[in-house]
Write a structure and sequence with these properties.
- Strand 1 and strand 2 form a beta hairpin.
- The chain is an alpha+beta fold.
Amino acid sequence: MKTTFGRRTRILAATTATAGLVLVAGCSSDDDGGSGNGTKTAAGGVELVKAGQLTTCTHLPYPPFQSEIDGKVQGFDVALIDLVADDLGVKQQIVDQPFENFKTGGSLNAGQCDLAAAGMTITEERKKNVDFSDPYFEATQAVLADKDSGITSFAGLKGKKVGAQAQTTGEDYAKSKGLNPVSFESSDAVLNGLRTGQVDAVVIDYPVVQGWLKDKANADAFEVAEQINTGEQYGFTMKKGNDKLREAINKAIADAKSDGTYKKIYEQWIGPYDESAASASPSAS
């Protein structure tokens, strides 16, 4: 994902739990508590960086997990964190940042946000910098290529120009298999690179591909050459040692799975529900 630090951070404020979030002016350092220097307010035993809101860092766009649709930030991750905010009696506010800012724990440690929700794979390396919630989504990688490319599997990428999103496990996987992928700063940029012929194929999270192929024009021209089970699971992250927030997130995820809310959100944003996609085994990463 994006690693440029010079881009102005955007804040997006919640409207309703179901409708998503709308853009408002400002940056995270403009209001009290956004820089980590304001008074923290407890809600349900959870300390927040700003009173009355659950501040979420993310990197846009990353559909179907979070992206702006009709002027509102919506998606699978957004809907799940809205459940956490509801439990705490506050509203969710989203801060759009470069992925590197919160992957390394920097923006969390600086008090710019309470948590990060960005379709982030749980890895041992990332656990050194942040704490993860229980896994909330089973993710796989996909090889996406033009239907006329002749590429039918990951093995067929040898000698081809391959694209991947920078700082992601898809890029890491491609490199681990001896490829030298072209790095793009966002999932949209990766897919546009494929569409415009900048690369022959891309390695990217399968849920992103699922959403992209819902567009008939994309589905007519491109196809999944192979789906790769890399054992990845997504988790929400928070500052190391923020056990109260981690427990609140885990409870919201567990409650949503038990009462059917998770299934409803999954089908809205991802597609047909598969029990394996909802695995919540904390031991897997």
